[in-house]
Amino acid sequence: MSAPIIAPSILAADFANLQRDIEMLNESQADWIHVDVMDGVFVPNISFGQPVVEAVYKHAKKPLDVHLMIQDPDRYLAAFRDAGAANISVHYEACNHLHRTLQAIKALDCKAGVAVNPHTNVQLLEDTIKDIDLVIIMSVNPGFGGQSFIENTYKKVRQLKEIIVENEASTLIEIDGGVNAHNAPALLEAGADVLVAGSFVFKSVDSVGTIAELKGINL
Ligand code: DX5
Ligand code: ZN
After folding, report:
1. Where does substrate bind (predicted)?
2. Neighbour count for residue 41 (Cβ, 10 Å)
């Protein structure tokens, strides 16, 4: 098994020292920088918008993995691409025409991702799986960092992996919420490719070491 892609979430960074925290990620084994955008409508919290993403992009040496927790994301796809997003993920629950939204993201030359809430069955992605570059399986209810991991996630990862294999798709499986060194091995074993970690990385005394620990998990 190859090493997981590690995507620390800057939602748990120190917003008053964002440049410092991005530089720490640049020097670490992080592969992507996960950027959580929340609109206060789709989720009960507001984080930041494209001006902050643009500021992060100026300092980042790793691709920005932008997770849009916003209603009707089509309105803002180009703005986030212009702000520096490499990957743009929209929520299954926030789109009326998911297939069209995926095409729109790809037309902007970004990787197209779909995030699914804990209550959303991954079978719903079967008909679009070949058009999806990455699926974010939410392992907490979106809106806040620092919540505890929902155990049902393992089952969803296995189901999604089966759909990907059956359809000969190359979709990556990303896990977001409550990820740590304790649940990461079983997630990778179930078929996850990308691990997002916010609190586990930024609340640790040695964030660079914690990222290395996640990167080094070998089954
Ligand atoms: C939750 C966000 C996550 C969050 C993860 O709505 O999508 O990316 O930052 O944070 P932790 O790892 O602390 O659960
Ligand atoms: Zn996220």
Report:
1. 9, 67, 143-146, 176-178, 198-199
2. 12
Any alpha helices (H) in the chain, and if so which ranges? 18-27, 50-59, 77-83, 98-107, 153-166, 184-190, 199-202, 207-215
pTM, two decimal places: 0.98
* CB 90 within 8 Å of CB 68: yes
Pocket mutation for ligand 1, best pick of 139, 196, 214 (most atoms within 8 Å of C-beta): 196
Ligand index nearest the alpha carbon of residue 148: 1
Give the ligand whose atoms come closest to the C-alpha of residue 117: 1
CA–CA separation, 52 vs 192, rounded Å? 29
Residue type, 10: I
CA 193 to ligand 1 center in whole angstroms:
17
Contact residues for 133 (Cβ-Cβ < 8 A; gap 6+)? 87, 111, 112, 113, 170, 171, 172
ipTM: 0.99
User: How many C-beta atoms surround the C-beta of residue 199 within 10 A?
Assistant: 17
Write down the architecture of domain 5-215 according to CATH.
Alpha-Beta Barrel (3.20)
- Which residue bears the tokens 């609340």? 203
Has 36 been annotated as catalytic? yes
- Helix (H) / strand (E) containing 135: strand 134-138
Residue 143 assigned ligand-binding role: yes
